Amino acid sequence: MAVRKKKTTGTRKKASARKQASTRKKTGPRKKSTRKYGAKAGKKVKRAMHEMKRGELKSGRSGKKVTSRKQAIAIGLSEARAAGGKVPSPKK
Q: Are 85 and 40 in contact (CB under 8 A)?
């Protein structure tokens, strides 16, 4: 009686590849998780989003209505920065 091999789908890694993945060194120290945005930033963004949804939020320079969600968030974060809230600096 001949012994048949099981057919594999090819999705499993070989034993040597699994061993290498588990013994690989992690580089650098782990970063501690701290909040990027403070409570003041959350309140300002929440207010800006509500105004945008009601159609009351206006752009600072041109005075046009803001319809973009991203723009409303940017306005809220900008106001939080001006008020001294904990917000990361804007992208350059």
A: yes
Per-residue CA distances from 2 to 5, 7, 9, 45 (Å): 10, 15, 22, 71
- Contact 77/38 with Cβ under 8 angstroms? no
- Say how many CA atoms lie within 13 Å of 84 toward its Cβ: 0
Which backbone phi and psi does 56 adopt, to 5 degrees?
Answer: -100, -15
CA distance 72 to 80: 12
pTM for the complete prediction?
A: 0.62
What are 16-68's pLDDT values in tens digits? 665 666 666 677 787 788 889 999 999 999 999 999 999 999 998 899 999 99
Provide the token pair at 90. Answer: 């804007």
Q: How far apart are the first and last CA of the chain?
A: 72
Tokens of 40: 């003041």
Residue with tokens 């040597």: 16
